């Protein structure tokens, strides 16, 4: 497994698309903050040229981390089936479970590095260019990362599972979305009428991030502000990691090459 992971890290380090992704995300964050600073300079009544508004774009949308985790997995492994990499790897005697675990670990480390680069660019550009005012502070943004970390990892693991399980990437993407966002939303709607369904639905990230947070120009109340809310985020993410890992191991063992 270690040799497989070394070969995957070598492939990642020599893959231009990974560097391009990091650069694009970094440039987009700079463009956002430059635009806000520009509008703020030339318009006296522009209210959004603040670090608070810039940071609130991420703080108010924690699920962005989950979507980006899936995108990174897709960038790394979407082409594997077309290139026949899986067949070649299994032919060398590496089990599907080890391949699955190796892909999850490589995807996680790659995502973490990209996250660190992009967040550094994001925060530095906002602090240097924008007015320091508003309810959303840098601490809210920094605390969001550990709060969402396990949920994003579960999203990453699910991404590996569906991309390996389905031959067409579009189907994999739809299935990932249904599991992570579609089904939780449907359960939340049913839960309006059925109490025990609502209790289950409110343990799903898509729902509790939407219901238990208020982040706007006037206030910043996040679920991770309290110990109970932070625990809920971490427990939900841990449950997702366990469920998707077990599902991946069982389903991919039965999948034909």
What is the rounded Rg? Answer: 20 Å
The residue-averaged pLDDT reads 91
User: Reading side by side through the largest sheet, how are the strands ordered?
Assistant: 1-2
Q: How does the major sheet shape up? A: 2 strands, antiparallel
Fraction of residues in β-strands: under 5%
Q: What would the principal axes of the Cα set say about the shape?
A: globular
Separation of the first and last Cα atoms: 19 Å
Low-confidence stretches: none
Helix % is over 70%
Total helical elements: 12
Order of helices and strands: HHHHHHHHHHHEEH
Helix-strand category: mainly alpha
Oligomeric status of the shown chains? single chain
Strand runs, count: 2
Keywords:
78% helix; 257 residues; two-stranded antiparallel ribbon; mainly alpha
């Amino acid at each position: 497994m270690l040799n497989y992971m070394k070969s995957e890290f070598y492939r990642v380090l020599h893959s231009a698309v990974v560097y391009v992704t990091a650069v694009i995300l970094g440039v987009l964050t700079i463009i956002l903050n430059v635009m806000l600073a520009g509008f703020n300079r030339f318009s006296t009544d522009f209210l959004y040229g603040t670090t608070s508004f810039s940071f609130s774009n991420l703080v108010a949308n924690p699920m962005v981390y989950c979507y980006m985790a899936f995108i990174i997995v897709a960038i790394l492994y979407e082409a594997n089936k077309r290139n026949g990499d899986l067949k070649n790897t299994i032919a060398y005697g590496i089990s599907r479970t080890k391949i699955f675990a190796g892909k999850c670990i490589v995807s996680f480390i790659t995502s973490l590095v990209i996250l660190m680069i992009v967040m550094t660019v994001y925060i530095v550009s906002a602090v240097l260019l924008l007015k320091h005012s508003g309810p959303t502070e840098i601490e809210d943004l920094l605390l969001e990362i550990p709060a969402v970390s396990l949920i994003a990892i579960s999203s990453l693991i699910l991404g590996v599972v569906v991309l390996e399980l389905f031959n067409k990437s579009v189907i994999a993407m739809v299935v990932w979305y249904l599991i992570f966002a579609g089904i939780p939303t449907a359960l939340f709607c049913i839960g309006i009428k059925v109490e025990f369904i609502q209790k289950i639905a409110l343990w799903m990230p898509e729902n509790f991030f939407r219901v238990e947070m208020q982040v706007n120009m006037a206030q910043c109340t996040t679920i991770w502000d309290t110990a109970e809310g932070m625990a809920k985020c971490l427990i939900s993410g841990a449950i997702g990691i366990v469920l998707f890992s077990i599902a991946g191991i069982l389903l991919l063992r039965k999948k034909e090459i």
